[in-house]
Amino acid sequence: MKKAGYRIPKEAVYSGFARVAELTGLKGRWQVLQEKPKIVCDTGHNAHGIRYIVEQLKQEKHNRLHVVFGMVNDKDIASVLAMLPRQAIYYFTRASVERALNEETLARQAASFGLEGNTFEDVSTAVNAAKENADENDFIFIGGSSFIVADALPLFK
Fold it and tell me: What's the DSSP call for residue 139?
């Protein structure tokens, strides 16, 4: 934008980025859906996005971490699974799209990386199970795919 002649103060840039969801209506980027237990979703779905999410999860204070997780079948699943925290309770699920990876297949692949949990046929059931198992000091993360987040968002209106 500078090359095009715009002069935008640095503070305005930082302010804009801090309010990007509010200003644009963007949903699903480290979006807090509920408090007590804190529930956050993020549309990160590749190694780069998951790396950011894992760093964010490390900053969160909680007793137990619950992860509602699903992916589509054309992503680098092994690279993503290798980064996920081992000390979490997983709720493997699939989104309501044709490209969604079967939750049983995902759970088998995840087990080879030391990730343990149960499988659920749809996002709603997985989210409800996580909420039932969590206490108010736990943290629930929902993600792995933009489609997982899209299926979860209507549950929190």
Answer: E
Residue 155's nearest CA partner among 31, 13, 20 is 31
Domain that holds residue 119: 26-156
User: In this structure, is residue 95 part of a structural domain?
Assistant: yes
Question: Model confidence at 26, in pLDDT bands (50, 70, 90)?
Answer: low
Helix (H, G, I), strand (E, B) or coil at 117: strand
Amino acid letter, residue 106? L
CA–CA dist 1, 58 (Å, integer): 34
Q: Is residue 75 exposed (0-12), middle (13-18) or buried (19+ Cβ within 10 Å)?
A: middle
Q: Residue 148 is part of a domain; what is its CATH number?
A: 3.90.190.20
Q: Contact, 111 vs 103, CB < 8 A?
A: no
Residues forming beta bridges with residue 68, ordered by sequence position = 91, 142
Q: What is the pTM of this model?
A: 0.86
Angstrom distance (rounded) from CA 29 to CA 146: 10
